[in-house]
Amino acid sequence: MKTPLTGILPVAPTPFHADGSIDPEGMCRVLDCMIDQGVDAICILANYSEQFLLSDEERDILTRVSLEHVAGRVPVIVTVSHFATGIVTARARQAEALGAAMLMMMPPYHGVGLVPSEEAIFEHFAAVSEAVSIPIMVQDAPLSGCTLSVPLLARMAKEIENVSYFKMEMPFAADKLAALIEAGGAHVLGPFDGEEAATLLADLDAGCTGTMTSALQPEKIRPIVTEYRAGNLDAALAQWKLCLPLINHENRQCGLRAAKTVMMEGGVIGSDHVRHPLKPLAPRTKARLMSLARELDLIALRWGK
Prior knowledge:
By secondary structure, the protein is of the alpha/beta class. The protein has a single domain (7-232), classed as Aldolase class I (TIM Barrel), CATH 3.20.20.70. 47% of the residues lie in helices and 10% in strands. The protein is built from 11 helices and 8 strands. The chain has helices spanning 24-36, 56-70, 85-98, 118-131, 150-159, 173-184, 200-206, 218-229, 233-254, 257-265, 283-296, and strands at residues 7-8, 42-44, 76-79, 102-105, 136-140, 163-168, 190-193, 210-211. The chain has an 8-stranded parallel beta sheet. Helix 6 runs parallel beside helix 7 (200-206). The protein starts with 6 loop residues before the first strand and ends in a 9-residue tail after the last helix. Its EC number is 4.2.1.43. This is L-2-keto-3-deoxyarabonate dehydratase.
């Protein structure tokens, strides 16, 4: 990429048939819907894609299908996280060979009792960087149970050639983003937030240049970023207030199920199945989700109708 990615880089949900098998045709429809939502890039195989419930064979199929179908219309970010450095490196090489524009990866972790040292984490990312020539986004999220200090992240940005993007989802993300931007300087090309944009205004104040949300309402959240970065702070705040009830409901009540449920209602996919041990949304939670989605007239809610 000649210029740094900014804006909104949502995570694509992985559609399954009602019997739990992957739905490659539905995956293509999800990607088309997201492009029609006006996204700046698409991330696949992330945690909100249920990557931890996919087999290696399913990952391969979805990676190939997604990259071939998008065919360069927008950049595609492929998540390659795994505890084993060798497996992450192999996934990274494959993703680049198939046309990925960027990789995203969490630090290696396997429960709170098996977290490597800071030096081992540095080596993990360095090994992947040596294997590819595309940017790497570091995902700093509570799910890992792994503490990534600002000095470590800044060192990675300065010393590992392809580590230049950071997705900050830890508590008090704005303070950590600001500290990282100050410590990493020009080496931090893409400071992003996540968490469905629940803290987006504070994170923009801290200097983030984009957000990685779900695929639920990218067309509504993207203007928050573009207006803010254009200096239209009142417009950005007004748009964030408009989106906030649905952001909060997704973040606190629905999780990764929200986008799939709305996309099924909108005819994008045939089923909103989530793999066990995950459970479908409770009827009351789904009813509130649909009410909020209809108020905003979301693209995903009418795309396939």
